[in-house]
């Protein structure tokens, strides 16, 4: 990220309520075709190379996997939309949310087909947060009169709060996963708490989001590798997508944590 800010005086609640009032304007900008094309065209050269490699890997795995049924196409659509979403998040671009909404919807379909309770809960939460996030980002980008959202740094108290919240939510999800006969429940139960922390921190522009995303992506690689062994729906495309997401998370962390003068 080229911009850095430690200004986090306004509370989550104040920014949330303000963002909701700005939702109609934000939706218009996020789903504006001209803005979507512009923000993709003006990405950094390195980011464009990353995007090309990630999209190539997504479609290559789809073709080699030879899963051309409904679940296979849903998988590749998920992969494509998630790649574009992540690439735009890396540079703090508002239109990441147009692809984020699509990615959440199709991923949710796959999670339901695979009976991954934690993943279903995570994607449902992500879908709701897309609309909160796009409102917050639109307002902050507009107020700052810039194309990218600025990254913030958590205080140590905020860091401890989110660390504890992760564990509390984990045990709640684990309890329900056991009673709902979920798959890979101990790993799967980590997805919602890490996703909640990552998504909230991302919504408000905190760079520490990438710690949650990298952890979550490592776990997702393990989960979908296990699903691949039993040939579950869209498992090939999803496994490759998890690897792509992990690589992207490392790249995103680099952009958001690097000093602004670099």
List keywords for this structure.
disordered N terminus, mainly alpha, 262 residues
Can you describe this structure?
The chain is built from 12 helices and no strands. It is mainly alpha-helical and 262 residues long. The longest helix is centred in the middle third of the chain and has 28 residues, at 117-144. It is globular and about 50 Å long. The chain starts with 11 loop residues before the first helix and ends in a 5-residue tail after the last helix. The model is unreliable at 3-9 (pLDDT under 50).
Topology:
Blueprint: H1 12-21, H2 23-30, H3 33-41, H4 45-65, H5 70-90, H6 96-113, H7 117-144, H8 156-179, H9 185-188, H10 191-203, H11 209-229, H12 235-257
Q: Which ranges are low-confidence, i.e. pLDDT below 50, for 5 or more consecutive residues?
A: 3-9
Radius of gyration, whole Å: 18 Å
State the end-to-end distance.
Answer: 9 Å
Beta-strand portion reads: under 5%
Described by strand count, sense and barrel closure, the largest sheet is:
none
Enumerate how many helices there are, as a single number.
12
Helix fraction bin: over 70%
> What is the 3D shape?
globular
- State the order of secondary-structure elements, H for helix, E for strand: HHHHHHHHHHHH
Determine the mean pLDDT: 84
Beta strand count: 0
Brief synopsis:
The chain is an all-alpha fold and 262 residues long.
